[in-house]
Amino acid sequence: MARDRKRQEDSEYQERVVFIHRVSKTVKGGRRMSLLALVVVGDGKGNVGVGMGKSAEVPLAIQKGVDDAKKNMFHVPVTDEGTIPHEVEGHFGAGRVLIKPAIEGTGVIAGGPVRPLFELAGIRNVLSKSLGSSNALNIVKAAAEGLKELESPATAADRRGITVQEMFVGKEA
């Protein structure tokens, strides 16, 4: 029974390995190799998470990354057209990622590391540009920080104490 529930949980989320990096630590007897896996997990409906796992073996590193990504999931407001509500720039370390909304039919215009993040978040039309660092880990984390900053029009209107209509049209005097 517990196994069936776990399979249902796993089928709910898709997971993609962004990259696997081999790192080494020099110890007294020589070099000790380890693997680092960056994984993105999402449901395609606005929920997405980024995780990192380290291990001596690839499958274990990926599983640790998936577990970490599920712990660090967040919601992305996606419009009916499958894009983001407004332009945003995400920062993490030296990595900066500019993310812009796009019209229907544009597709995901994004560099290799951030593409799975947008696809698993359910964003179908978006433009993005990596600025600064070319380190995949920092770029993905910067894109995730940018997506966390997004705010839907309804949330922004509630915060300002006005309706969505007033926010876009303005108050009639």
Architecture overview:
The chain has 173 residues and is of the alpha+beta class. It has 2 domains: 2-74, 2-Layer Sandwich (Double Stranded RNA Binding Domain); 75-158, Ribosomal Protein S5, domain 2 (2-Layer Sandwich), CATH 3.30.230. It is 35% helix and 35% strand. The protein is built from 6 helices and 8 strands, in the order H-E-E-E-H-E-E-E-E-H-E-H-H-H. It has helices spanning 2-12, 58-71, 115-121, 136-149, 153-160, 164-169, and strands at 14-27, 30-42, 47-55, 73-75, 88-92, 95-101, 108-109, 126-132.
What is the secondary structure topology, with strand pairs?
Blueprint (H helix, E strand, L loop, with lengths): L1 H11 L1 E14 L2 E13 L4 E9 L2 H14 L1 E3 L12 E5 L2 E7 L6 E2 L5 H7 L4 E7 L3 H14 L3 H8 L3 H6 L4
Parallel strand pairs: 7-8
Antiparallel strand pairs: 1-2, 2-3, 3-4, 5-6, 6-8
Task: Summarize this entry quickly.
With 173 residues, the chain is an alpha+beta fold. Helices cover 35% and strands 35% of the residues. A hairpin with a 2-residue loop joins strand 1 (14-27) and strand 2.
